[in-house]
Amino acid sequence: MHLFAVRVFLGILFCAPHLCLGCPPGCECFFVTRTVKCVSQDLLTVPQSIPGYSRTVIITGNNIHQIGPDSFTELENVTNIILSNNRIVEVASHSFSALPNLRLLDLSGNQLALIHPEALSIPGSPLQELNLSRALHNFTALTDLATALRWGGLGGLLRLDLSGNHLGLLPPVMFSHLPSLQQLHLANNSLVAVYGGTFTGVDRLEVLDLTRNAFRTLRTDALQELEALGSIRILLGDNPYSCSCEIRDYVAWLNETRARVDADAVRCASPSGLSGTRVRGLGVQAIGCVGPVAAEVADLTLQTSYVFLGLVLGFVGMVFLFVLYLNRNGMKKWINDMRDACRDVLEGYHYRYEIDSDPRLGHISAGAGRGRQPGLALPQQLPSDTCIVQVPTDTRVKQVSPSDHP
Ligand SMILES: *[C@@H]1O[C@H](CO)[C@@H](O)[C@H](O)[C@H]1NC(C)=O
Ligand SMILES: *[C@@H]1O[C@H](CO)[C@@H](O)[C@H](O)[C@H]1NC(C)=O
Ligand SMILES: *[C@@H]1O[C@H](CO)[C@@H](O)[C@H](O)[C@H]1NC(C)=O
Ligand SMILES: *[C@@H]1O[C@H](CO)[C@@H](O)[C@H](O)[C@H]1NC(C)=O
Ligand SMILES: *[C@@H]1O[C@H](CO)[C@@H](O)[C@H](O)[C@H]1NC(C)=O
Predict the structure, then answer these.
(1) Is residue 79, in this structure, part of any structural domain at all?
(2) Could you tell me the superkingdom of the organism this chain comes from (predicted)?
(3) How remote is the CA of residue 73 from the centroid of ligand 2, in Å?
(4) Alpha-carbon span 86 to 79, nearest angstrom
């Protein structure tokens, strides 16, 4: 009797009877805080008849397979719906369309495998925060989500949580239809790279959380993508950074970026000599880019190329000698021919030289050089001591007698 009286008293105190009557089975309804809670009740569907005054609906730890357009009827005052850990697999089209003031939707801790392209469409785009932490079953669900983000008319979304989803890569321009997005949580995934275009369109971003992923370094295209976000807060800690020369561009970016990075948490995981060292401020020598080791390597490369050049030249020479050997008979003949030819030529020169060096014959060659026929000019111009076999016929030997002289 006493207990019953207390209950009635509490009921009158905290909720008007006509409203409390509407509380669905297995749920607790709090009129003062405008909250409905259905926690760990093994519910198989979203309970119907949620009171109209509700602002916050918390349905967690149940066994609800599917959310559909009938799950939530017209509830004009609901702003927050928390559906975490319900083993939800499917979110059908227009599941939340009857909630014109829904600002926070928490689907974390489910196993979403089917997300309809218009699953998140709500007239008026009221949604500001979407929590999908540990909610995606596999990569197919991620591509489904990318489509739903595109078709959902989520122009007012400010916060998106995709942490803990084993994501290995992000589809390009996945967030381009979220122009108001301020916080993007991608922590605790398996991302190894950020590609150009990943954050295209998120021009109002203020916080990007990439902690606890699988980055060993960030390459140039990733750094350009991050730098394009401006002076925002970027969390990059707790990644397995490999502090070899490959990390050089990342160090340089950390050294001078205008983004606010959690540089204290960005530390080398390997090699063991640098494990735990802060990545920002690392010198190029510390990560083995220049210095004695690199110089020796360069020297060795140079030596190797010289050795290679020598080998190539030696090989070419051997081939040449081998060809000569194969052609030795032809070569001998050729050499003999050449020698004969040379001898002829040399003898010819020798002869010419002898003629040229005789001063009495100098004019012959000169006359020949002018194109005259030497045979005609020769007899008249021969010097006196030239041996002439035939005396020319018109030569008269004049008899000179003393009587001719008076
Ligand atoms: C929603 O809230 C407003 C203002 O608090 C109230 O007037 C209205 O009756 C509520 N709607 C329902 C269905 O209870
Ligand atoms: C999303 O939900 C998880 C737990 O379900 C919580 O830890 C996390 O803080 C939520 N994300 C945001 C951005 O509030
Ligand atoms: C993801 O899971 C669904 C349902 O289990 C399956 O049909 C689909 O093939 C899976 N996709 C991948 C990429 O594993
Ligand atoms: C990271 O994600 C895994 C798998 O989703 C989860 O089991 C783990 O609790 C998460 N860790 C943290 C620190 O959030
Ligand atoms: C980063 O800055 C430190 C000094 O603060 C400098 O010694 C180091 O060489 C820089 N690293 C790169 C890769 O620019």
Answers:
(1) yes
(2) Eukaryota
(3) 26
(4) 20
For every one of its 406 residues, what pLDDT tens digit does the chain have, with 9 covering 90 and above? 454 444 444 444 455 444 455 799 999 999 999 999 999 999 999 999 899 999 999 999 999 999 999 999 999 999 999 999 999 999 999 999 999 999 999 999 999 999 999 999 999 999 999 999 999 999 999 999 999 999 999 999 999 999 999 999 999 899 999 999 999 999 999 999 999 999 999 999 999 999 999 999 999 999 999 999 999 999 999 999 999 999 999 999 999 999 999 999 999 999 999 999 999 999 998 888 875 554 555 566 667 676 667 777 776 778 767 666 777 777 777 767 777 776 776 666 555 555 555 555 444 444 444 444 444 444 444 444 444 444 444 444 444 444 444 4
Evaluate: CB of 77 within 6 angstroms of ligand 1.
Answer: yes
* Non-local CB neighbours of 270 within 8 Å, separated by 6+ positions: 240, 241, 242, 243
Is the Cβ atom of 310 under 6 angstroms away from ligand 5?
no
In a domain, 224, yes or no: no
Contact 108, 133 (CB under 8 A): yes
- Confirm whether 404 is domain-assigned: no
Question: Which structural domain, as residue segments, surrounds residue 82?
Answer: 24-122
Structure tokens at 89: 């697999």
How far from 264 is each of 143, 273, 356, CA to CA, in Å?
Answer: 34, 18, 98
- Sign of the CA dihedral 379, 385, 390, 393? positive
Q: How many secondary structure helices (H) and strands (E) does the chain include? A: 9, 16
Question: What's the CA-to-centroid distance between 296 and ligand 4, angstroms?
Answer: 45
16 lines ligand 1 (CB under 6 A): no
Alpha carbon of 75 to ligand 1 centroid (Å): 9
- What pTM did the predictor assign? 0.72
User: How far does residue 72's CA lie from ligand 4's centre (Å)?
Assistant: 30
Element (H, E) at 114: strand 114-115
CB of 248 sitting under 6 A from ligand 5:
yes
Which protein residue's CA is at the shortest distance from atom 14 of ligand 3?
A: 138
Are 223 and 198 in contact by the 8 Å Cβ rule? The answer is: no
Tokens of 372: 């005259």
Domain count, the chain: 1
CATH of the domain at 84: 3.80.10.10
Residue 44 per-residue DSSP state:
S
Q: Answer whether residue 231 is part of any domain.
A: no
